[in-house]
Design brief:
By secondary structure, this protein is mainly α. It has two domains: about 60 residues, Diphtheria Toxin Repressor, domain 2 (Orthogonal Bundle); about 70 residues, Diphtheria Toxin Repressor, domain 2 (Orthogonal Bundle), CATH 1.10.60.30. Helices cover about 75% and strands about 0% of the residues. Helix 1 packs across helix 4, helix 5 crosses helix 8 and helix 7 packs antiparallel against helix 8. The mean pLDDT is about 90.
């Protein structure tokens, strides 16, 4: 005889504490949406009613009214599938982390070039053969000269911009 699956019985609704935690999570998500830059908010898959509520929350300056509006946004979010929104926000956060990592990598090369000089130039040109070593050396010399003279780091910034353009095609190192 085959075993029968037992009927688990009626499913219990979430406890009041769990409902409060869920509501607070949605309110926090709403706060995150209100704080997003306009361009990032436009890229998200939001319902019209939710988008209007967020726009209104951005314009409200009174503390009590802003708190009520955030509560309303949380209430609207209860009726919306927030998984897409959370996935889009997570993707945005990941993209920001990658950009920061790339920025630090380029900044590290610039600092290494300024500190080590020709040794770092050789290492960088070996890693990125299509790099213009002559231009790199010229920018490096300018950056070192202005640092020695105590002038603002205009050439160091130019060196950073050159490295960013040259290393953009290269895959980031671990």
């Amino acid at each position: 005889m085959a075993e029968r699956d037992e009927d688990p019985g009626p499913i219990e609704p979430p406890s009041k504490s769990q409902r409060k935690r869920d509501a607070e999570d949605l309110k926090d998500l709403g706060d995150e949406l209100v704080a997003l830059p306009a361009a990032d908010l436009e890229a998200l898959p939001l319902a019209e009613k939710l988008r209007d509520a967020i726009d209104l929350a951005r314009r409200i300056t009174a503390h009590g009214a802003a708190a009520r509006q955030r509560q309303l946004i949380g209430k609207i979010l209860r009726k919306v599938d927030v998984d897409e929104i959370r996935a889009a926000l997570a993707s945005r956060a990941l993209e920001i982390r990658f950009e920061a990592r790339e920025f630090h990598r380029i900044e590290g090369w610039r600092d290494r070039l300024l500190a080590e000089g020709e040794t770092a130039v050789a290492a960088l040109t070996a890693a990125v053969p299509e790099l213009d070593a002559g231009r790199l050396r010229a920018l490096l010399a300018q950056a070192r000269a202005e640092a020695a003279a105590g002038r603002p780091p205009a050439a160091a910034r130019e060196l950073f911009r050159y490295l960013r353009g040259a290393l953009a095609a290269e895959a980031p190192s671990a």
